[in-house]
Each structure stands twice: as C-alpha cells, then as structure tokens.
Amino acid sequence: MDGTSTLGFGFSGFIKERLLTLQEYSRMTARAFQNIFLKPFYFTDTLLQMDVIGVGSLPIVVLTGFFTGAVMALQLAATLAQYGQIERTGQLVSLSLVRELGPVLTSLMVAGRNASGMASELGSMVVTEQVDAMRAMGTDPMKKLVTPRLLATVIMNFFLAVISDICGLTGGFAYAVGALRLDAAQYWYSAYHALDFGDITQGLVKPIIFGIIVASVGCYYGISARGGTRGVGRATTQSVVAASVLIIVSDFLLSRLLIGLLG
Amino acid sequence: MATAGRPVDMATLTHPELPIPTPPVTPVLQFEHVSMAFGAEKVLEDVSFQVSRGETKVLLGETNTGKTVLLKLALGLLRPTGGKIFVMGQEVSALPEEVLFGLRREIGIVFQESALFDSMTVRENVAYRLVEEGEMDDQQIEERVRTCLRFVELEATLDKMPDELSGGMRRRVSIARALAAEPDIMLYDSPTGGLDPVTATTIMELIIKLRDVNKVTSLLVTHRLQDAYLMATHVWDAEKRALKPAPSSQTHTTFLLLRDRHIIFDGSASELQAQTDPYIKNYLS
User: Fold this and answer.
1) Domain limits of chain B?
2) Cβ–Cβ gap A130/B115 under 8 Å
3) What does each C-alpha distance from B3 to A41, B19, B22, B23, B249 come to in angstroms?
4) Banded pLDDT at B15 (limits 50, 70, 90)
C-alpha cells in the first residue's frame, strides 16, 4: 500500500501501480474466499447482508426485468412480423433474457445499488478508524466485513437473476398477449422449448461470477479508501464504474467460454 | 510479604542484612531501533524505549511527529520499515496478522476520534470484543458492559447511538470499550484532543483511575502538557473519589519526547523540567 508512492512517475510507474492494485485486489478476494471455510463464521452478518443486498434489490430487479421483457417483446414483434414469425416472440424473449439480459441487467442493478453501498460503508469505516478499531480488538475485517458481503452477494445475485428472468418473461407475456393478441399457451410453449441445457447453465453461472465481481470490487474500493469523505466519494464512484465495466467485459468472455464448452 | 510471589533466595535467609534482589523486569512493551516511513517520507527513525509492567509512559511531541504512528506500530496495525517491536515478549513486527489478532486481545486502545462503531449502540460497542470472543454468556456480557460504563459514569447511555453523544462522552465510551476485555496494556491516542478543559480533566481522571485501580500498563500520546503533568503528579484517591497529589514514585509515570522522527528525551517529569536543551525548554514553556 505504502509502496505506491515510491513507484516513480511516468508510464512504468502507472503500470506498476495498476499491477499493485490488481495484486491487492486478487489477494483480498482470495482471502475472502478462504475465510468462508475458516472460523469464526459470521452467519448473522451474512444473513443481514443477504437481506440488504437481496431483499433490498428486489424491487429494482423486478421492475427492470419486467419492463426489459416487455420492451423486447415490443421490439422483436415488429421485426418478426415482417417475416410472419410473430408467434416466435416468446422464444426470442426467453433466449435473450435467460442467456444474457437477465444476468447482466440484474448484476448491473445490483452493482449500482450494492457495490456503491459497500464501498461507501467500508470506506467510511476506514477513514473514521473503525476498521483499525476492529483490528485492534482482535477481529479480522476481511472475515467480518468482506466475506459476509461476498457470500451474500453471490447467493442473492443468483436468485435475483432467476427472479429477473421470470419477471422478464412475464413482461414479455403481458405485452405479447395484451397488445399483440398472441395466444398465451403458445407464448409460454415457445419460450419454454427455446431453452436447452446450455442456455440455462449460462444463465445460472453468469450471476454467480458477476456476484463475485460486484462484492469484491465494492469491498476492495471501500477497504482501500483514503483521504476522508472525498476519498470515500471517489471510491464509491470508482466501484460502480469498475464493477459495471468488469461485468460487461466478463460477460463477453464468459459467453465465449460457455458457448465453447456447452454449445 | 516482600517476597510473595517470588522464588525464595537462600542467601537472603542466611544473611538477612542482604537486600532482596529485584527480579529482572521484563518490559511489557519494547521498541528497538524502530524506523517507519511511508514511501519516501520518514516518520520515525531509530526509536528505542521500553515500558515496564504497571508503568505509564507519556509520549509528548508536536503534531505530525509520528506519535499516532508509534501507537499503531505497538499494536501491529502498521509494520515498521526497520527495527523490532516486542509486546509481552512477542515480536509484533514479525508476527503474521492472524497471530496478532490474538495478541491484540490483551491490549486496549482509545483512538483519537474514538472510532466507535457508528451503526451500533453504546451497549453493542462496549460488548463488541466480548461477543466476538464468545467466552461469556449474554448475562455476563451485560454485567461487564454495565460495569465498564459505570466506571466511565455513562451507564445511562446504554441504548444510545454514538452520534447522540457529545465528543467527551464518545471518548469515555471508547475507554469503556477498551476496558471491557480487561486488557493488560492500554494505549491512548490524544484522548483529550479537541475537548474543553473540564471534559479533558474528566477523561484524564478516568485514565489515572484506571492506572491506579486496575494497575494497567499505559502508553499515552498527548500534546497537552497539563495532561502529562497531571498524570505524573496525581493518583486516584478511592475514598474521596478524586485525584490527589502524589510523588512520582507512586505515579509510575515517565515521559518520552519526540522531535523530528527521533526520541530526544526519555525520563521522569522532574528530569524533563531540569533539561537545558533550548528546544525542550521552549516546548515546556
């Protein structure tokens, strides 16, 4: 941490600083995972975070999912109608949502709400010496603060993505049946049969990885916040930007990997 | 009575006129040629001193002379760039963080800005360490919390949040929190900084009371000379529940003075006052 100011200036200094950040981020994330299996276990803190992250994010995830599904049905139906394939609306809504939009949009929402929350909360604790006080009283802040947030985000992001998928399909259904006058049974039949094992696996693996990104980035920026309230503000903004960009980039890489593996 | 707790020396039994040998005093806290730097900026250089059991060391110095850094080094919150630090015989400068968590349970610290957990009540703050240790049941924890808060005369604030308390009250809760685990060593980082004179005196009374009642080894950082002298010249009178003047042999308090990253004085209050160094004379005036 302290070595950053000795790294020098210019391009090499910039690269070294980034590498040092990456190293610290990786070490923190690795330790947070390692702590899942080491005593003491902070079940209450984890449950509390699951409530804050999961239940707290539910309204925005439900609304985002529902209207994303509805707008997809609206946009796709117009194109499909040109080819006389409007009955395939459910299929396309289902595929797009489960493979991509459900996990990505949910994770972006969770990042916007919770990565920032984690960074500001932990950052405030750092600058007011509460984290030092915790260490001074024999508590490992990684165990007490980071691991419960990581675990809670991974678990809840998974379920939120599933809920988002369901809400998206419902939104698509509402528009398809209400506005396009499609048959309800046909919509659900085509939506259901469009999905195979690979699609569902993609849809379930992605939110887990994205959950790790959201929590680890939020906690890293929080724990490494310096410079008073201005530093906390900067850490909060950076955490949302970094988590969002990482989610988008890793979505591409994950999609490529999973398509290669699962077809 | 004088030999209670010590191995009996046969020489003193056969020759009662010989003085009873004093056992070697193992320092509770020891700095050996410690240096600290943040990047290129040196904060401490070649700092050496030790604090014996039951002793209080008052660390004086102007602002930005590395006093807080020195306290954090003693607790292992920071790692020195050179030298060794021993706390109760263990080299904290070489121990991994996981081992330090256990050692830190023997040490209480009062931070400059209290560092209370702002999302917890006063009760939860004071009980924090006890709950974490998990060795006491709820009733025992409640009793200990109330005892500690009674010591700082804040039992009525149990269910208040830190932001409902004044600066002085927060400082007192911070002392109660540090006390809860009955530490062997107390570290105080400018406990009276930013407080009005009356509240500052109340805090100093508490620190002196803690020193004399619990016989806690202390390292007190301050830039207020009046606090340092109060510590060195007064003891707690349990009967009158007030401070009373006492000779230095009873207060077990010595001073360290930091200047430009170095310790320039280590000794008693009277020795400090007798110094002829122009900087020290100017500092004391």
Assistant:
1) 25-284
2) yes
3) 47, 11, 10, 10, 20
4) very low
